[in-house]
Amino acid sequence: MKTQIVVDKANRRIICTAFAKGKTHDFRLFKESKTRIRPEIVSMTDTGYLGMAKLHANCVLPKKRSRKKTLTKDEKAANRAISSARAPNENVIGSIKRFRIIADKYRNRRRRFGLRFNLIAGIYNYELL
After folding, report:
1. Helices 113-128 and 87-97, axial angle in degrees (round to 10)
2. C-alpha distance from residue 88 to each of 14, 22, 83 (Å)
3. Helices (H), strands (E): how many in the chain?
4. Which structural domain, as residue segments, surrounds residue 112?
5. Reported pTM
6. What is the pLDDT of residues 64-95, one digit of tens each?
7. Which residues have a Cβ under 8 Å from the Cβ of 119 and sit 6 or more positions away?
8. Number of domains present in the structure of the chain
């Protein structure tokens, strides 16, 4: 199962979740989930969302290296800054993994995965209070 989590950086709360089968690409899951982000909000994603700049103008994506061309020092520094700014999001994902729903193989009914994950996200948000 593939899970998409939208996290508020200010208070580290989970705002939105979306789910798909495991082979679904990250950007395709974003498009199919119909998650809309207001234009003034800065969206920080990983390289799985490369086409997001066309849908959301205020999107910060790391630069990927090609096979023939390596990244310059400035591009590497920019990628490092982006990844350090995304660290709170990754910490939220790590906290959710403590519940073992996305850390291990999910062996229950798929149709209940979304319900169970949303309950865990609610518990996580409640712990922040």
Report:
1. 120
2. 11, 24, 10
3. 5, 4
4. 2-128
5. 0.83
6. 888 999 999 999 999 999 999 999 999 999 99
7. none
8. 1
